[in-house]
Amino acid sequence: MKNLNTKQVGYILGIGLSIIIVTAFIFSQLIFPVVLGKTPKVEVPDVTGMNLTKAKRAMQTEKLHVVVKDSIYSESASAEMVLEQMPGAGDKIRQDGTVYLIVSKGSATVTIPSLIGRPFQEAFITLRNLELFTTVIDSTYSDIYAVNTVMRSIPSAGEKVTRRSTVKLILSMGSQAIMDSLEASAAYDPF
User: Fold this and answer.
1) Secondary structure element (H or E) that encloses residue 171, with its range
2) Which of 19, 58, 125, 135 counts the highest number of beta carbons within 10 A?
């Protein structure tokens, strides 16, 4: 008897849940759109070639959402410039629809700045900001450059390299005469 009551309760709950789901579907798909009206369709503006900020403003004016789908390097477009859009310009979509953009990251190459005479930490930060890696390949004495300043970079200033490549640095160890006198004073220990 108890097993029969459990089945009846299960059937009643299943039927009740089905009625709720069907009712929600009917209201969301049939009644609400008829009573409230469907959202109007708008024409997608052409934002290719625009700066991303201006493109977003143009889409907001039409009550459209923007999603940056991808960012790619481009030798012909500056950073943050819209390269492609989907759906395309002139297509009609519902208000509050989404337009996907592909945006430029700028050039894939950068020009090596002059690093000669700069402290290593400053040179490191400068190269990191250009998306370049740094490695010190040698240190040598110099009467011209202070300790830990850049004496040479490979590739040198003005050369173009692709982002995320490595720039090799040769640093100064300071003057040989000063280092020799420091070593001599360290060797002489009267105590």
Assistant:
1) strand 166-172
2) 58
